[in-house]
Amino acid sequence: MTLLGADRADITPPGPVPLAGYAFRAELGPATEVLAPLQLRTLVLGEEGAEPVVIIGADLLWWGTELVRTLRQDVQATFGIPGEHLVLHATHTHSGPQTALHMTPSLGEVDESYLESLRRTVLRSIEAALGRREQVSLEFSRAPAEVSVNRRWARTGGRLPRTPIDQELTAVSFRNAGGDRVAMLVHFACHPVVHHGNAITSDFPGAVCAQLERDTAPLVMYLQGCCGDVNPDRYDPDGSYHNGGQDEIEAMGHDLAQVVRGALATPQHHGIANVALRRSRVELPLQQRASLEHLHAWATESGCRGQWSRLMLDHPDRFKRDPYLDLVRVDLAPNLQLLGMPAEPLSSYGLHTKAVSNNTCLPLGYTDGMTTYLVGEQHQREGGYEPEEAPLYMGLPALLAPTTEQVVLDAITDLLTAQPGQRQAQHKTVIKP
User: Mind giving me the DSSP string for 62-85?
Assistant: First the structure.
């Protein structure tokens, strides 16, 4: 028998706070306006008598890796739930506070008091969800949602090739013994960047969840897919982007909510929830690191490279350490899984995940921390923000090597196909039960 408990909590900053997501905001100061509240949604899932899996989705850019580590310790100490059973996912709104330490300041300064408040809210929400568990079954549906576009193609006015993106929306419903829908997951891949201003908003993921919570399910959690090269379809032919206000955010939320409602009318798949979790680690190959002489020379610059150089000089251990990804697989039913990555993955990683799993696995970025953009070999050849600038903003010690894409794709394949405990040494990937 599978049990589910759910809770929703407000995580809107109570006062002015610097926002994360756009480097140009660094000169604008803390945000003082709230267009839409930020929410944290918690699901506690597990078989009766077994240690549950806790899935949290929050209206944040991402979860800082250090904060993830602290919260896992808190969950173990407070509830006796293994820290590895905590899965922290972010919708990737670009209009919320920074939660990651040791990134360049222009990407958003951390407000320590907000982090502490967020930490307390997480624990209260888990406690509330644990007290509301009931028996559930699971069903899910899929439908196309053509509201997004390949942003590298759109930004360049078609100068760069249009590569495939994932425009499939998946809605997962949990129903109690009486047949009532008690919680939902909505999975889609698109950057929440309708809004570019210096104001707090959950952007369209928050809008679609709030609209569905009025008439479809008491709690709706948005799961962000591999959207590193996907934006809302708001571009002119010359590559100009239309920044929108809250009204336009609500309109996109309405469009996606309608897609969800249409999909729910004809469920395509049914299953009984049977929750299990596995993790794996994959080391990321890098290009050659810069010399200390170069770091000292660049540290005098005012731009991104200067900020990055100063960050590396201030944290030499980070500069020397090889980065890695901790992937997580959560089985929700025999024919439905989640695959979370602590990175900003481009569409190719999500499409690969669906292909390898025969479209039973939903790929998630922004899960359990943040390492860097996961770009592909083609994007490295083309250049641009994702392969050349984003790693500096995010504090990676060097740019990713051209072999990174294949290494990560192989690790995803391993995690989706290997038996628990199997070691895949050739990819430096360890599968953990």
Answer: ---HHHHHHHHHHHHHHH---GGG
Q: Phi/psi of residue 336, each to 5°?
A: -155, 120
With respect to residue 382, please indicate whether it lies within any of the assigned structural domains.
Answer: no
Q: Which uninterrupted H or E stretch holds 407?
A: helix 404-417
Helix (H/G/I), strand (E/B), else coil: 367: strand
Q: What range does the domain containing 81 cover?
A: 2-274+353-367
Beta strand 276-283 pairing with 148-150: unpaired
How many Cα neighbours within 13 Å face the side chain of 362?
28
Spell out the residues 6+ positions from residue 123 whose beta carbon is closer than 8 angstroms to its own: 74, 75, 78
Cβ atoms of 82 and 51 within 8 Å: the answer is yes
Q: Which two tokens stand for residue 377?
A: 């070999």
Burial class (CB in 10 A: 0-12, 13-18, 19+), 402: middle
pTM to 2 decimal places: 0.95
Q: Which pair of structure tokens corresponds to residue 72?
A: 């896992």
What does each C-alpha distance from 157 to 72, 189, 233, 235, 347 come to in angstroms? 44, 21, 13, 9, 19
Is residue 57, in this structure, part of any structural domain at all?
yes
| In the predicted structure, residue 211 carries a pLDDT above the cut 50 | yes
- Quote the CA–CA distance of 363 and 352 in Å, as a whole number: 9
User: In this predicted structure, what is the pLDDT of residue 432?
Assistant: 43
Domain assignment present for residue 411? The answer is no
Domain total of the chain: 1
- pLDDT per residue over 153-170, tens digit each? 999 999 999 999 999 999
Q: What phi, psi does 71 have (nearest 5°)?
A: -65, -35
Pairing between strand 39-47 and 2-10? antiparallel
330: three-class secondary structure by DSSP: strand
Summarize pLDDT for 375-389 with one digit per residue, the tens: 999 989 999 899 999
Classify residue 289: in a domain, yes or no: no
C-alpha closest to that of 230 among 339, 357, 145: 145
* Among 304, 341, 315, CA closest to 397: 315
Tell which residue, 272, 286, 283, 242, has the closest CA to residue 138.
272
Query: How far separated are the first and last CA of the chain, in Å rounded?
Result: 21
Q: In terms of DSSP H, where are the helices of 111-245? A: 112-130, 151-155, 203-215
In 10 A of CB 379, how many CB atoms? 24
Beta carbons of 368 and 342 less than 8 angstroms apart: yes
| Tokens matching residue 166 | 């994932």
**Residue 404 confidence class, pLDDT cut points 50, 70, 90:** very high
pLDDT of residue 430: 39
